[in-house]
Amino acid sequence: MKVIFHVDETAKWDLTLANAGNFLDAAPDADIIVLANSEAVRFYADQAAEDERFIKLSRHEVRFVACNNALKGAKISLEQLPAPVVVVPAGVVELAARQAQGYAYIRP
After folding, report:
1. What CA–CA distance (Å, rounded) separates 49 from 53?
2. End-to-end Cα distance, the chain
3. CA distance 83 to 94
4. Global pTM?
């Protein structure tokens, strides 16, 4: 099973991380991606490195992705991101590409 969680609001991170954790618990072999764009990319720079859920999910091979356009807009440098975060040129293009590859789209 393949799923991509989309978070574009900072206030939705708690719910997104909880949903991703619950999904992983129910489907431990799932291919899970969490993609942040818009204002939600701030979480990666400001809180992710200290967030136990982020760390746990990263250790279980959940992939965390950031939109480069959003990072530029928020003036966040790549050096501010924790190691597990992968940057893609455009979040919306990544969402469309993953859905075309069969990923289920979830936006908490």
Report:
1. 10
2. 18
3. 19
4. 0.97
CB of 95 closer than 8 Å to CB of 35:
yes
Contact 69, 88 (CB under 8 A): no
- Domains in the chain with CATH codes: 2-106 (3.40.1260.10)
Counting every residue, how long is the chain? 108
Alpha carbons 54 and 65: distance in angstroms, whole number: 12
Q: Is 70 exposed, middle or buried (0-12, 13-18, 19+ CB in 10 A)?
A: buried
Order across the sheet with 31-36: list the strands: 85-88, 63-67, 31-36, 2-7, 104-106
Structure token digits, residue 98: 């993953």
Task: Give per-residue pLDDT as tens, 13-42.
Answer: 999 999 999 999 999 999 999 999 999 999
